[in-house]
Known about the structure:
The chain is mainly alpha-helical. Helix content is 63%, strand content 2%. Helix 2 packs antiparallel against helix 3 and helix 5 runs antiparallel to helix 7. The mean pLDDT is 88.
Amino acid sequence: MADYNLYRVDDRFFYIFIIxxxxxxxxxxxxxxxxxxxxxxxxxxxxxxxxEMERHALFQRIFHWANSxxxxxxxxxxxxxxxxxxxxxxxxxxSEWFFWHRWGIALLLVGIVAHIIHEAFVAKEANPMVFNxxxxxxxxxxxxxxxxxxxxxxxxxKYHTGQxxxxxxxxxxxxxxxLTGMVLWKPFRxxxxxxxxxxxxxxxxxxxxxxxxxxxxxxxxxxxxxxxALFIKKNWPETKSMITGRMSLREYLDSHSLPE
Length: 260
C-alpha cells in the first residue's frame, strides 16, 4: 500500500490560492481608489436620516455566526492535523485536533439542517439568494463598470450580486468538503457502499487530495469575504447589521433597490 502521506495536496496550492486572493483584493482596492461605483438608477424622495430597517433577522444572524465559528474551528483544527508545526503558539497532537474538527463539523451540519428547515417551512419571503437572469445582467454590468467599459452601475437587490455568487460558491465548496470528509472518516465510511461501487483505497486517497484542494479554495474565498466586509468603508453599515440586525434605510438605498 502506498504511503498515505503522499496522497495530499501540495502545500504550494494553499499559498497560491492565498496569494491569488490577496492579489484580487489589492487590485480591487487600487481600482476603486480611483473611482467608487455610483448606481445610475435613482430612487424617489430620500428617507429620513434616522429611519431604519431590519436587514438581518435574528435567525440569519445566529446562523451566520454559528457557521463562522464552525468554519474557523474546522480550518484551524484541519490545518493543525495537516501541518501541526506551522501555526506558532498552538500545540496538540493530530488526534487532539481531530476532536475539535468533529465538533466543528457537528456545529456546521446542525446549522445547515436548521437553515434548510427554516427556508423551506418558516421563511415567508422569496429566497433573495436565487441567482437568476436579473443577477446575471447585474454582474455583467458590474464587470463592465469595473473595467471602464461602461458608466452604468446597477442597484443591488436585497443582496449584492457578488454576495449571491459568494454564497453559492462557498455552499458548493462546503458540500464537497463534507462529502470527502465522510469518505475520509472511517466510522462514517463504513456506512458507504464503496465496495459495491468498486471504490477502494485509491478513491479514499483521492478524496483526501480533493478535501485539501477545496480547503485551500475555501480559505481564499474567506479572505475575499473579510476584505469586502471589513476593508470597504461603504460596506460597514451592512457588516454592522450582521450584529445588530438593523441599518439606516438611507445607507441601504445608496446601493440597493427599495425593499419589498
